[in-house]
Structures are given as C-alpha cells and as structure tokens.
Amino acid sequence: MTASNPLPYVVFGVTGRTGAAAADALLRAGQSVRVVVRDPAKGRCWAERGAEVALADLTDLASMTRALTRVQGAYVVSPQHYNREDLFELADLIAGTTARAAAAANVPKLVALSSVGADRESGTGWIGMNRMFERRLAETGIATVFLRAAYFMENWMPMVGHAMRTGTLPAFLAPAQRRLPMVATADVGRAAAALLQEEWKGTRIVNLAGPQDYAPNDVAAILSSMLDKPVDVAVLPEAEWPQALAGAGFSAAALAGFTEMTRGLNGAHIGMGSDSSAIGRAGTTPLEHVIKGWQPTE
User: What range(s) does the NmrA-like domain occupy (predicted)?
Assistant: First the structure.
C-alpha cells in the first residue's frame, strides 16, 4: 500500500513508546512519515525504514517550525522531565513553542497526546502539564484531537519486577479492588496514527482506554497465574510514597505532582467521565500482554 498524498505525517516522541508506535503504524499503512529527534543517531533506525528524519529541539521555534513545514498532519507530545524542579515551567515552554511552530508552519491538523483528567482545572498534579499543552494548542485554531489516554499499563512495570522477585506487588492505587481504565502505550500510538488518517475538523477530545479496566488485585492475579505462585498486593500509604520512589530520580516538584495526581485518581477526582464532550475509544491490548512482554532493566 502506498500513500496517495506525498506530504508526510510528522511524529514526535519516537524515542518513547507512543511515538514509536504511531510512526510504526503509519509506515505499515504505507504513509510518508517524518520523525523528529534531537539526536541524529536516534533517527537512523527510522531512516532505514524509509522515514524522513528532522532534527529539532522542542524549545527552539525555528527548528520546530522547519520540522512541521509541508506536512499532512502531526502527532505532538510534550515529554515531562521528572528530574527537574521547573518541570511545569518547561512543559509550558514546550507547549508554547509547539503551538507557535505549528501555526507558523500552517499544519493542517494535529493529534496531541494528553491525559484523562486534563479537563480539570486543579487537583491533578502531573496532568496539569497536559492541560497546559491542550490550552496552548487550542489557542492556535488548528484542527486538533486531544488524545486523552487512561492510566498507562506500563506504569505497573517497576512494581511488577518487585512482585516477581518477592511475591508482593506494591501499589499506589487504592483501594486494591477498585478498577480503573488502563491502556497500553502501543494502543495509544496506534490510535494517534489512526486519528491522523481520519477526516475531521475543529477540536475533538478522545478518551482512550484499554479493552477492560483493572484493579491492583487484578494485576496481582495476572502475575500469580503467570508465575504459578501467590502474589499479594501491598497498598502503600501516602507517607511511604517518597521512600518508595526514592530511586526514580524525581525532583521535589515532580514528587509533589505525582502525589497530587495519585490522590486525584484514588479519590475519583480524575476519571474518564468528567468531560461529557469526550468521545470514547478502546485499545485492544490486554494487560497480560504488556506484562508478558516486559523485560527487566539492569
């Protein structure tokens, strides 16, 4: 299959999971693709697959505008720098630069990675950065889909590694029996690629969940079945969160953002049903598949 329009789709975040999945899906569909990276070495594997490679810094208007010029559309992301104290200020800078570059380049449409809860004005922690991204892009008037993803299934992977070693699954989400929408990052990228290839105008909000909801108890049950041994859930009280995350490299501001976000999830302040204007879609990847494909890092 070959693309009828020679102009490419631009994909940011290809060194991460959702961007890589989006670029892969577009290439498999026969579309022209331009991937955006900071390091040329990170683009070589995509060039070998026939993608164009553009170099840009997300805070540099000139390079971002060049990357977004003469395209069919773009999948844009705002990576969050959890090691920095100014992560919210940096996120706003990236959002503003992306918006100005997209407007200067006359991009016809955007799909922007966001999060469930981005409709909330406060009490969402890290998700506030997604809200910034949405607001900056909405100000451009460009046709945009805000792809609000549910809780990433991959967020469980550090705890899964601990459970495999010890038989105990630590959990920040509570209570242990309460199910929440979760989605695989591969499904997020595939949804972004599909949306880019659809015809639409104006602003749309798409909530993306997985094929079913999961509770911490369900994660433990999946692991127990895989390992053929009991796995228990240990819900961590908030007072223990800083110690549990001590090795994650979070700044104090990032830890505060994580805490507020997790409180919002546990208290149902953050949820799929809070924005009645959102359109619901579902991915197809079950949590079992994500866990089985997980590889521990050294």
Answer: 10-243
Q: What is the CATH classification number for the domain harbouring 268?
A: 3.40.50.720
Task: Give the DSSP H/E element, type plus range, for residue 139.
Answer: none
CA distances from 184 to 46, 65, 223 (A): 22, 30, 17
Give the residue among 216, 195, 92, 102 at the shortest CA–CA distance from 153. 216
Name every residue whose Cβ is closer than 8 Å to that of residue 235 and which is 6 or more positions away in sequence: 171, 172, 173, 174, 175, 176, 216
Q: Is 3 a member of any domain?
A: no
pLDDT by residue (tens digit) across 242-289?
999 998 999 999 999 999 999 999 999 999 989 999 999 999 999 999
Number of domains in the chain: 1
Exposure string of 281-291, with b = 16+ CB inside 10 Å and e = fewer, is eebebbbbebb
